[in-house]
Design brief:
two-stranded antiparallel ribbon, 222 residues, mainly alpha, elongated
């Protein structure tokens, strides 16, 4: 399972960087095709379904190496779907920047949005590995218990695999939202830098009266 996640991360990196190569283009960026977004969502849902199905099969059939292979394949497929979504979002960021420039709209940095999404995605990614470690420890406990029968051990391990699957699906769902949002924000700012356009955060610190005293307040909008 660990190797499949590493491969998935590499796929996300390679595909996203491929989309990033368009940021320096001088031609007006066209809006991305909704087909790409739909394909990414469909692939991600299919990968999640395969992950869940293989885990249920592993639990109900007493454990199978083939089910574990399918589980890893489902996780990888889900991440590929997320990569497609991220490429679509990256292209959307470029397109929106091009549209704002042509419309002479004041440009606002999307970096805070991208960094927030990146932080959420990183937390979900860490949760996947923490959950996997906890479940692995439970599996070792199931197998190492000498007082259990083979059937009881099989059910115990199956329960642990299902728990890992629930953690993966939940964290994966968060990543499927966070990654495109981060891609959009970074693409918008990258395209603005390539075009030599200044960006504003539209945020400032001003004095503010509050009940019982005074202080400073961060106001504005991103």
């Amino acid at each position: 399972m660990m190797s499949s996640r590493l491969a998935a991360a590499l796929v996300v990196l390679v595909v996203t960087l491929a989309g990033a190569s368009r940021a320096g283009a001088e031609e007006p960026a066209e809006p991305p095709s909704p087909v790409l977004l739909g394909a990414g969502i469909a692939v991600a849902i299919g990968g999640g379904a395969l992950t869940y199905y293989s885990s249920r099969s592993f639990k109900n059939n007493g454990g199978s190496f083939g089910d574990l292979v399918l589980n890893s394949l489902g996780t990888l497929t889900m991440q590929v779907g997320g990569a497609l979504e991220t490429v679509w979002a990256w292209q959307l960021g470029e397109s929106n920047l091009s549209y704002d420039v042509r419309g002479n709209v004041p440009l606002t940095s999307r970096r805070p949005l991208a960094l927030g999404a990146l932080a959420v995605g990183a937390a979900a990614f860490v949760a996947m590995y923490v959950g996997a470690a906890i479940v692995a420890a439970k599996e070792v406990g199931c197998i190492g218990s000498g007082s259990k029968t083979a059937d009881e051990i099989s059910r115990c391990v199956g329960d642990a695999v299902m728990t890992a699957t629930y953690v993966d699906l939940a964290a994966g769902g968060v990543l499927l939202v966070a990654a495109p949002v981060a891609g959009y924000g970074f693409a918008y700012d990258a395209a603005a830098r390539e075009a030599g356009r200044p960006l504003s955060l539209r945020a400032r610190i001003v004095p503010r009266l509050v009940a019982g005293g005074a202080g400073l307040s961060l106001v504005g909008r991103f």
